[in-house]
Inverse folding.
């Protein structure tokens, strides 16, 4: 595999933009520090999904200052919003996220050092993700305003991506129905535009109900809900052998009862069910529900299940991904300074033996990257649609409208996802520079899509061909509400 280095990319020199993008890029240059400040504000706020009040408000205020119309609290979620500028077709959508992860509080330094022990932190870089997409939306608006072009630019403020809630409910409630094309990105360890998919997923809590009794005096009168949870988990572990190879089952016991001397009459386990295709998740989930029924038969308990959320796998769009790759080449990769490289060198000392090589294997990245501290190249165009192991509610959007995605390096080569290393880089200059690179790529590609009807039609035609015999059906019930009550006491 031949990596594309900064001095080899085939278009103009970094920073030299074509005239038809000039106003957009000038806005990004002029507002560089403003975007960094917004990103750092969200990084410091570090709010978990559906509680991103400060983060959402900060984005809304900036978008309002730039002339966008805001619709707040959409799809039943207080922190979900849509910002819109312009009118008519085409409609270009940018996806933004801003939720943090519980327990990943981390100072922006190369050593593990929580800002506040046990508090949330941006271990997936969503402070960068949302800010870059917002910047691209405003840059496109600025260019269109200067040239008098017609169309609609939207930024979607999407909460709770980590628990796969936000976009699934927004899609179900029709907020993407009139969108022509969608552009998205994710912070990571490499610069790449890939045509790969993701896993579909269900998130569900199984609650068991039994009967209390004195665990020492008369345990025979008790019916243990915790026994049911444990038996369910044992059976689910046996199920792993009999599901498709790339499927995943993860669980945590969220309620194990009160104290050992009381037979628990309540217990709960939270499951994620993942698989490459939506129908595979549905099939495995039904088997998991049968396992819960079996656990009840063995323990003479009963159970109820609450589907918190569910998402589709990403539907790749080669037309849009190739376009993003071309604009990634135009922008060019970041070149890192000595201070950033020293930071990365120090951080790699925290890696476990073989972590860097394993991370590159998981990313299907070339082994040559192991020689880099921070990725300063662009991976070649790759049409591989092999799904990764993770899941995202971007998947549901991609089944409603053609969607293109990229990864941009915002951290150290070898860092794990959802880690303190990821959080640290997301709050300092490595993350900032990757974020600003992503903004330029998304803005340039967005402007080309707004102006090129044939390009939009090619993306739409590809999407229609792939969905013709499998139309999207929301995995949520029509009356299902976002799980806001799950956050009581969650800080």
């Amino acid at each position: 595999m031949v990596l594309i280095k900064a001095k080899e990319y085939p278009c103009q020199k970094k920073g030299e933009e074509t005239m038809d993008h000039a106003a957009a890029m000038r806005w990004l240059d002029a507002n560089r520090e403003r975007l960094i400040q917004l990103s750092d504000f969200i990084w410091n706020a570090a709010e978990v999904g559906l509680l991103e009040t400060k983060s959402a408000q900060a984005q809304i205020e900036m978008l309002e200052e730039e002339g966008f119309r805001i619709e707040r609290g959409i799809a039943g979620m207080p922190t979900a919003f849509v910002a819109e500028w312009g009118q008519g077709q085409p409609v270009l959508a940018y996806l933004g996220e801003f939720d943090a992860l519980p327990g990943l509080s981390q100072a922006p330094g190369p050593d593990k050092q929580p800002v506040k022990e046990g508090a949330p932190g941006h271990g997936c870089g969503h402070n960068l993700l949302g800010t870059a997409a917002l910047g691209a939306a405003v840059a496109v608006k600025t260019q269109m305003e200067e040239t008098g072009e017609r169309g609609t630019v939207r930024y979607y403020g999407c909460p709770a991506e980590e628990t796969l809630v936000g976009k699934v409910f927004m899609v179900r409630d029709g907020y993407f129905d009139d969108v022509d094309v969608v552009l998205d990105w994710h912070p990571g360890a490499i610069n790449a535009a890939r045509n790969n998919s993701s896993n579909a997923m269900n998130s569900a809590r199984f609650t068991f109900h039994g009967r209390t009794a004195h665990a020492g005096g008369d345990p025979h009168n008790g019916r243990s809900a915790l026994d049911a949870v444990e038996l369910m988990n044992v059976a689910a572990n046996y199920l792993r052998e009999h599901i498709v190879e790339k499927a995943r089952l993860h669980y945590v016991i969220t309620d194990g009862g009160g104290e050992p001397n009381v037979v628990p009459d309540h217990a709960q386990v939270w499951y994620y069910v993942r698989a490459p295709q939506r129908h595979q998740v549905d099939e495995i989930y039904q088997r998991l529900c049968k396992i819960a029924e079996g656990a009840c038969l063995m323990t003479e308990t009963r159970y109820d299940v609450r589907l918190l959320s569910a998402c589709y796998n990403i539907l790749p769009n080669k037309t849009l991904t190739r376009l993003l790759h071309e604009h990634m080449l135009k922008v060019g990769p970041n070149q890192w300074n000595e201070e950033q490289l020293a930071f990365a060198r120090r951080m790699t000392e925290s890696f476990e033996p073989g972590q860097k090589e394993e991370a590159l294997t998981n990313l299907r990245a070339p082994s040559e990257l192991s020689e880099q501290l921070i990725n300063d190249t662009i991976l070649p165009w790759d049409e591989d649609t092999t799904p990764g192991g993770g899941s995202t509610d971007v998947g549901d959007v991609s089944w409603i409208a053609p969607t293109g995605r990229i990864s941009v390096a915002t951290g150290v080569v070898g860092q794990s996802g959802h880690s303190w290393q990821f959080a640290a880089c997301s709050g300092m200059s490595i993350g900032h520079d990757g974020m600003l690179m992503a903004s330029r790529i998304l803005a340039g590609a967005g402007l080309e899509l707004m102006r090129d009807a044939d390009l939009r039609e090619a993306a739409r035609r590809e999407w229609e061909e792939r969905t013709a015999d499998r139309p999207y059906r929301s995995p949520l019930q029509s009356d299902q509400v976002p799980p806001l009550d799950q956050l009581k006491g969650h800080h």
Remarks:
- The domain at 200-312 is CATH 3.30.70.360 (Alpha-Beta Plaits).
